């Protein structure tokens, strides 16, 4: 009797194991088929999306069938506020070209620093400012290793290609505004410099970085907070509109023409370099 019961239990265990094995086999087979179908659909969707992007690019750039550029209002005297030389072409190139091609639009460029301060020469105190000794050491090495004059020439050359007259280029080299990733520029100083140019040039449109600075460079972000400070204190003329360059994630940043559909849907103002 005991042998019978023991044999029956072994038989039942074998049946259960076979059922579990069959269930797992069916599950793996079904999941594999589902995974293959999903990958195939994703590949087809990616191919379709690429085709749509290429078609949109052709329609926008070559055929000009679909309007992509959505401009700002009252853009008669436009001021671009940047932190360093090369910002004008790396971040604002298409927008600058859009305005310089307009007949009744004057474009100005304000660069807040051309002096690169090497990281090894930075010495921070508790207020997150750099020591004057560091500045003296940098200056003694020849105008911050000679980068200042070279970067100015590059800025003028770039603006010439973009269509900005040399007389409309405004360069500031303040000791409290070094080119350094980990130095926060004084908000009041940035506000004052920008406000002076807006008032003296009767600027109707001001364009600069947003709070994330596109590349999250500390100097870029400080310009945003300086301009935001002017808006909060109501120190900008009512006729002056302020616009910021939208920071996007890394994937969209390097998508090139694959970002066209997203820009059409998500961006209020946009420009494309023809």
Describe the structure.
The protein has a domain of 173 residues: LmbE-like (Rossmann fold), CATH 3.40.50.10320. The protein has ten helices and five strands; from the N terminus they run H-E-H-H-E-H-H-E-H-E-H-H-E-H-H. A five-stranded parallel beta sheet has the order 3-2-1-4-5, sandwiched between helices. The radius of gyration is 29 Å and the shape is elongated.
Topology:
Elements: H1 2-62, E1 77-82, H2 87-90, H3 93-100, E2 106-111, H4 132-140, H5 147-162, E3 169-171, H6 187-201, E4 205-209, H7 213-216, H8 218-232, E5 241-245, H9 250-253, H10 260-266
Parallel strand pairs: 1-2, 1-4, 2-3, 4-5
Helix pairs in contact: 6-8
GO molecular function: N-acetylglucosaminylphosphatidylinositol deacetylase activity
Keywords: Membrane, Transmembrane, Transmembrane helix
Family: Belongs to the PIGL family.
Instruction: Provide the helix percentage.
Output: 40-55%
Average pLDDT level: 81
Strand order of the largest sheet: 3-2-1-4-5
Shape: elongated
Terminal CA distance: 92 Å
Radius of gyration (CA) equals 29 Å
The computed structural class is alpha/beta
Low-confidence stretches: 119-145
Number of strands: 5
Q: What is the fourth-level CATH superfamily of the domain at 77-249?
A: LmbE-like
Please state the second-level CATH architecture of the domain at 77-249.
Answer: 3-Layer(aba) Sandwich
Largest sheet: 5 strands, parallel
Elements, N to C (H/E) = HEHHEHHEHEHHEHH
Main features:
elongated; Rossmann fold; alpha/beta; five-stranded parallel sheet; 274 residues
């Amino acid at each position: 009797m005991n042998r019978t019961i023991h044999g029956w239990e072994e038989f039942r265990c074998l049946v259960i194991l076979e059922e579990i094995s069959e269930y797992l086999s069916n599950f793996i087979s079904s999941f594999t088929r589902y995974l293959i179908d999903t990958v195939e659909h994703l590949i087809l969707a990616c191919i379709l999306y690429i085709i749509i992007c290429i078609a949109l690019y052709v329609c926008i750039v070559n055929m000009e069938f679909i309007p992509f550029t959505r401009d700002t209002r009252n853009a008669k005297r436009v001021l671009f506020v940047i932190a360093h030389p090369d910002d004008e072409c790396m971040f604002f190139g298409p927008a600058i070209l859009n305005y310089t091609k307009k007949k009744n639009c004057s474009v100005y460029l304000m660069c807040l620093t051309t002096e690169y301060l090497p990281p090894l020469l930075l010495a921070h105190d508790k207020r997150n400012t750099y020591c004057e000794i560091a500045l003296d050491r940098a200056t003694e090495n020849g105008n911050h290793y000679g980068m200042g004059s070279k970067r100015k020439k590059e800025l003028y050359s770039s603006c010439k290609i973009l269509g900005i007259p040399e007389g409309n280029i405004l360069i500031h080299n303040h000791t409290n505004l070094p080119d350094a990733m980990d130095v926060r520029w004084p908000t009041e100083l940035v506000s004052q410099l920008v406000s002076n140019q807006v008032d003296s040039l009767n600027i109707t449109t001001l364009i600069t970085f947003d709070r994330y600075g596109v590349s999250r460079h500390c100097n870029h972000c400080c310009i945003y907070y300086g301009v935001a400070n002017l808006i909060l204190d109501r120190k900008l003329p009512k006729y002056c509109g302020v616009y910021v360059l939208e920071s996007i994630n890394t994937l969209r940043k390097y998508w090139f023409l694959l970002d066209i559909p997203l820009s059409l849907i998500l961006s209020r103002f946009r420009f494309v370099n023809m």
